């Protein structure tokens, strides 16, 4: 005899995802039954893992605790037999938990209704570390530095489109706010955009979108490189971070944007510090990048740290684009720094 409660049980398949101690991501799947009529964050129990195998603790006290902080539909497992979710988790009390550093800054600046839209670029590599399908397409003698790859169409030009498209479809199925995709200047280089969303949501979603991409690439023997400059002589990748507050989006917003840019100019090195690893190799001042050492800004200027897009100049309000973050940046940290510098009332920004 089944008890009445059993009739209400649903099977949940939850893929828990977290940030490890080596700037990477880890996951494991938990299958459990739930009595919740509606699945909320609280439906996902705390879980633990062996931190000594993820670069996060020592074997003697290896257990670390995963606490769910965000979830969405899982577009990857597709068993069709359970309610399936991807669950972003924080590692409780661990130095790698950058979400907890963003949280208080987010709360303190919530009234300014800040939005972030992040353009995530990446380059697909093969198992030897070369550009994906390079051997195949080099037979045609194409110049890797030519202008034929950006927003391209055609065999040997738009390389690994099935990966980029499958990723886009999965992000949509997951319910993530993906804004679009395009191929980029380097062969097998692509971009997708997440946002605009608040600082917490954009960060959760960007991490999960990266996770989905990495897992899809497994099927194609492709390796996703989030390195800012995998090849010295080819265009690198970035994670341009578009940012606005309510007052920037309203009439007269351009003045607020300029004042935010001034604040950012005073904190260049603090920002660069958390904008991703190996970013110096990318920010050379060439290939549409700014200089690593110096802050600059400009209207429509793709060689500046901060660009004010053409539509924003025309409208007199909108958002700014911080072009400095690297593709391997941690959005929890990038969003924290931008909010802290531009939105905290008690900001200690020095004099004019
Ligand atoms: P680019 O011209 O630099 O390639 P994209 O179209 O790739 O620009 O990306 C622009 C990003 O800016 C998108 O992620 C979009 O969501 C975001 N965005 C648009 N409006 C705003 C806004 N008001 N505040 C923050 N982000 C915004
Ligand atoms: Mn873009
Ligand atoms: Mn781009
Ligand atoms: Mn951009």
Helical region count? 11
Q: Which shape, going by the Cα principal axes?
A: globular
Taking all Cα atoms into account, the compactness measure Rg is 21 Å
Low-confidence stretches: none
Helical percent range? Answer: 25-40%
State the major sheet. 8 strands, mixed
Multimerization state? single chain
Structural description of this entry:
- By secondary structure, this protein is α+β, with helices and mostly antiparallel strands.
- It is 29% helix and 24% strand.
- It contains eleven helices and 13 strands.
- The chain has helices spanning 4-7, 99-109, 134-138, 161-174, 199-219, 246-249, 253-265, 268-273, 279-282, 310-315, 331-343; strands spanning 10-19, 25-34, 47-50, 63-73, 83-91, 115-125, 178-183, 189-197, 223-225, 241-244, 297-299, 306-308, 320-322.
- The strands form two sheets. Strands 6, 7, 8, 9, 10, 11, 12 and 13 form an eight-stranded mixed sheet that branches. Strands 2-1-5-4-3 form a five-stranded mixed sheet, with helices on one face.
- Strand 1 (10-19) and strand 2 form a beta hairpin.
- Helix 4 (161-174) crosses helix 5, helix 5 (199-219) runs antiparallel to helix 11 (331-343) and helix 7 (253-265) crosses helix 11 (331-343).
- The longest helix is centred in the middle third of the chain and has 21 residues, at 199-219.
- Bound molecules: adenosine-5'-diphosphate (ADP) and manganese (II) ion (MN) (3 copies).
- Adenosine-5'-diphosphate (ADP) binds at residues 115-117, 119, 179, 193, 195-196, 240, 242-244, 249, 318-319, 321.
